Amino acid sequence: MAKIMVVEDEAAIADLILVNLRLVGYTGISVDRGNEVMNSIELHKPDLIILDVMLPGKDGFSLMREIEPLQIPVIFLTAKEELNDKITGLKLGADDYIVKPFAIIELLTRIETVLKRYKVDGNTFVLDNLEVNLDAHTVLIDNQPIELTTKEFMLLEILIRNKNIALSREKLLELVWGYDYMGETRTVDVHIQRLRKKLGLDDKIKTVFKMGYRLEVPR
């Protein structure tokens, strides 16, 4: 999995991001001062950088000018919400710009999107005898193909990309069926049961009491 550097001077935010990065399988590196970033990049060679703008030592925009020639993808994560700041960040070469406060699932999804764009991270998920190719949309059990409907595969992909993280039924409904879907969260339960049965994941797709579901895999 990819190595991600978190450049953030607020320890609580940095810790929250690092914990969730590690939950889904990434390697996380933390830097809390702007003037230490370039040395840390040289030492750790990250695949992606999450960068705050307001940092002690050197600000994120100045750092972006130094990082851009290295062709390392950057996502700004900052409290600076003015449109001019966002335009500045993107013009400097950042791949995305997220304003605090933020939802961790949104950050993880945007990380996945950027890594996929750069073809940094592998898109094959293996768990016991199950193999899922997220690019080819193929599912194998013991090397035998398993047919999933479009919605079943989308639901499985969301669970994989957020493995070990509890997702509410409402969030799953939103991510798979869309904001304008008029159905009920019971739809999610039905599709989860189908996935469990087809893929033998009864003990892996955990029900989170009064909330939703979590795909539980070894860390």
From TrEMBL:
Any one GO molecular-function label of the UniProt entry: transcription cis-regulatory region binding
Domain Response regulatory, residue spans: 3-115
GO BP, one annotated term: regulation of DNA-templated transcription
Database matches in InterPro entries: CheY-like_superfamily (IPR011006), OmpR/PhoB-type_DNA-bd (IPR001867), Sig_transdc_resp-reg_receiver (IPR001789), WalR-like (IPR039420), WH-like_DNA-bd_sf (IPR036388)
Signal peptide (from-to): none
Residue numbers of 4-aspartylphosphate PTMs: D52
Cellular-component GO terms for this entry: cytosol; protein-DNA complex
Domain OmpR/PhoB-type: 122-217
Domain of life where this protein originates: Bacteria
Keywords for the protein's UniProt record, in alphabetical order: DNA-binding, Phosphoprotein, Transcription, Transcription regulation, Two-component regulatory system
Feature: DNA-binding region: 122-217
Function of the protein: May play the central regulatory role in sporulation. It may be an element of the effector pathway responsible for the activation of sporulation genes in response to nutritional stress. Spo0A may act in concert with spo0H (a sigma factor) to control the expression of some genes that are critical to the sporulation process.
Protein name per the record: Stage 0 sporulation protein A homolog
